[in-house]
């Protein structure tokens, strides 16, 4: 524990941790999205009020980042009101969005707090499942405190049902904790890439601190102390915290296990380990100096090594600082300032609640389907009881297999075993169907992206990609169209094991996906 903790009331810290630790205990070992068939909640999954303190359930149940299950149903949005930053990360080029929360890509429009609130109300009236407003750049939310808190203040008055969320590098966090609590900001993300300043000095060339630029080890030491102190203070006040870490191969890959341990000790609710995206064309220090990002397998290996520590988020989409919609989709183009001017904005709380009630009903049906499929899987006989395979799923939301292969721009990846179907990540791909026709030259890259999967579950698929997938050893499966994902994955897995047991097919281990995590969509993607 750093010496800075002297500022934090020990009693407060204990109390805050107590609440958070109850959920962490239920989550331990399950991983994000896993219930392990036990019915226990893992944060980010399908747990309910019986699995965790009611006040925590209320905070996470419809937050798409804090609940893996919720991300199939609920949307978030970001408003780009925070352009300045107080540190330099080697994976950031200021032309691009903040890497704390967003994939770089120029923010289309920076907003004033008034414009931001108007935009939120416009989105809330059009997308009733939008439940969370986050401020995540394009710089650092807390390096722009006036704009950040003014936005939250106005929004709290005008749209009280929307959860408030912010993301920060942590440097200015301790002195902002009172403000954060004043506006009922229940969710705070801190990007923590190291707990050892010797590692930190390879990531942060400088910080701006006490009216001067500080460099090297001193900079990393101050940043580390501020991050730890801020995390402890938030825990003591009962604010849910998520830690984002950028996985930088050769710099902090092994070290992230220690980061996970240290943030868990200080009450972090979730740990989101994200891949460095480091393309030279984005002009970052790392990108220009040959620092590569991790492969999908390297990312999963580090995440798996952290299991049992702070609970993991694996469904992050590294979204833009002006993203709008479900995670993985971006509807920001529909809500530019020009378009908002022409919209009739009706923020109708009752209508929003009624819509969300419908979402909850669907979610319960999804949960029930998953439980039934799990029971069937546990009862089924077959070969190799410990078998685990990956399946790719094409979905456009609602937790269902409901997307045509040719329309997918990403596949969700589930690890399936008799114990359950657990979301473990996603793979972005280039669109196969363009202008109504399949682009066959895209197929090899799509197949490569899911090359470690045994099957791909889709609502529909054409003959050409079907043949190509089969030739690559990946089963194209469309018989579970419009079913809930976990049920579909478990049913397919049961059938797969039966076919092996019956001698129809032989189980073949799959190879590694031959692409780098997050690096397959060209210009829109960049550093973490
Ligand atoms: Fe935004 Fe972040 Fe809040 Fe979510 S994002 S401020 S916690 S509302 Fe979510 Fe986007 Fe990943 Fe962030 S998917 S980058 S974790
Ligand atoms: Fe600042 Fe975010 Fe860029 Fe880091 S990634 S330098 S915190 S804007």
The percent range for helix content is 25-40%
Count of beta strands:
18
What is Rg? 22 Å
User: Which kinds of small molecule does this entry bind, naming each only once?
Assistant: FE(8)-S(7) cluster, iron/sulfur cluster
Q: What class would the helix/strand composition place it in?
A: alpha/beta
End-to-end separation: 28 Å
CATH uppermost class of the largest domain: Alpha Beta
Strands ordered across the widest β-sheet: 10-9-8-5-4-3-1-11
Q: Could you say which overall geometry the principal axes of the C-alpha atoms support?
A: globular
Q: Kindly report the average pLDDT value.
A: 83
Number of helices: 15
Strand proportion:
15-25%
Largest sheet: 8 strands, mixed
**Stretches where pLDDT falls below 50 for ≥5 residues?**
1-47, 102-106, 514-528
Number of domains: 2
CATH homologous superfamily assignment of the largest domain: Aldolase class I
**CATH architecture label name of the largest domain:** Alpha-Beta Barrel
Description:
The chain has helices spanning 10-27, 54-60, 113-126, 145-158, 177-182, 197-200, 216-236, 255-265, 285-288, 296-305, 337-342, 349-379, 443-449, 463-471, 485-501, and strands spanning 75-78, 87-88, 130-135, 163-168, 187-191, 206-209, 212-215, 240-247, 270-275, 312-313, 324-325, 389-393, 410-417, 420-428, 433-434, 437-438, 455-457, 475-477. It has 528 residues and is α/β, with parallel strands linked by helices. The protein folds into 2 domains: 3-342, Aldolase class I (TIM Barrel), CATH 3.20.20.70; 367-501, Dinitrogenase iron-molybdenum cofactor biosynthesis domain (Nucleotidyltransferase, domain 5, 2-Layer Sandwich). Helix 1 (10-27) packs across helix 7, helix 3 (113-126) packs parallel to helix 4 and helix 12 runs parallel beside helix 15 (485-501). 55% of the residues are buried. Mean pLDDT is 83; it is low at 1-47, 102-106 and 514-528. FE(8)-S(7) cluster (CLF) is lined by residues 65, 76, 78, 101-102, 132, 134, 136, 165, 167, 187, 189, 242, 272, 316-319, 327. Iron/sulfur cluster (SF4) is lined by residues 85, 87-89, 92, 98-100, 137, 139-140, 169.
């Amino acid at each position: 524990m750093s010496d800075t903790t002297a500022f934090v009331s020990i009693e407060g810290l204990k109390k805050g941790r107590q609440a958070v630790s109850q959920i962490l205990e239920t989550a331990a070992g399950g991983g994000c999205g896993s219930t392990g068939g036990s019915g226990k909640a893992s944060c980010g999954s399908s747990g309910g009020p019986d699995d965790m303190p009611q006040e925590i359930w209320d905070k996470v149940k419809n937050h798409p980042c804090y609940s893996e299950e919720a991300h199939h149903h609920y949307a978030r949005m970001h408003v780009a009101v925070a352009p300045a930053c107080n540190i330099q990360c080697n994976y950031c080029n200021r032309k691009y969005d903040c890497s704390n929360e967003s994939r770089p890509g120029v923010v289309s429009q920076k907003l004033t707090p008034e414009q931001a609130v108007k935009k939120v109300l416009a989105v809330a009236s059009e997308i009733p499942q939008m439940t969370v407003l986050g401020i995540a750049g394009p710089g650092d939310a807390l390096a722009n405190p006036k704009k950040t808190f003014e936005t939250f203040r106005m929004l709290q008055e005008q749209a009280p049902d929307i959860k408030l969320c912010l993301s920060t590098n942590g440097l200015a966090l301790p002195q902002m904790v009172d403000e954060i609590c004043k506006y009922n900001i229940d969710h705070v993300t801190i990007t923590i890439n190291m707990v050892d300043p010797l590692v930190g000095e390879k990531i942060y060339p400088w910080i701006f601190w006490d009216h001067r630029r500080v460099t090297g080890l001193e900079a990393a030491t101050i940043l580390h102390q501020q991050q730890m102190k801020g995390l402890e203070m938030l825990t003591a006040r009962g604010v849910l915290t998520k830690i984002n870490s950028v996985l930088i191969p050769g710099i902090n890959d092994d070290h992230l296990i220690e980061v996970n341990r240290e943030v868990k000790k200080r009450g972090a609710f979730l740990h989101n380990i994200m891949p460095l995206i480091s393309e030279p064309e984005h002009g970052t220090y790392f990108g220009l100096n040959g620092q590569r990002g991790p492969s999908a397998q390297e990312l999963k290996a580090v995440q798996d090594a952290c299991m049992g520590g702070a609970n993991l988020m694996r469904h992050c989409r590294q979204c833009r600082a002006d993203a709008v919609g479900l995670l993985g989709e971006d509807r920001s183009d529909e809500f530019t300032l020009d378009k908002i001017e022409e919209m009739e904005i009706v923020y109708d709380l009752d209508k929003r609640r009624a819509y969300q009630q419908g979402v909850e009903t669907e979610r319960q049906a999804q949960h029930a389907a998953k439980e039934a499929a799990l029971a069937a899987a546990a009862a089924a006989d077959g070969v190799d009881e410990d078998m685990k395979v990956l399946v790719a799923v094409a979905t456009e939301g609602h937790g269902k297999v409901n997307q045509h292969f040719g329309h997918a721009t990403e596949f969700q990846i589930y690890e399936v075993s008799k114990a359950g179907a657990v979301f473990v990540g996603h793979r972005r791909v280039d669109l196969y169907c363009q202008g109504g026709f399949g682009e066959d030259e895209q197929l090899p890259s799509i197949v490569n992206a899911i090359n470690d999967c045994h099957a791909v579950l889709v609502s529909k698929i054409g003959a050409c990609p079907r043949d190509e997938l089969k030739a690559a050893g990946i089963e194209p499966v469309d018989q579970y169209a419009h079913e809930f994902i976990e049920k579909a994955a478990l049913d397919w897995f049961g059938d797969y094991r039966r076919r092996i047991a019956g001698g129809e097919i032989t189980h073949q281990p799959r190879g590694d996906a031959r692409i780098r995590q997050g690096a397959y969509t060209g210009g829109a993607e960049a550093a973490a």
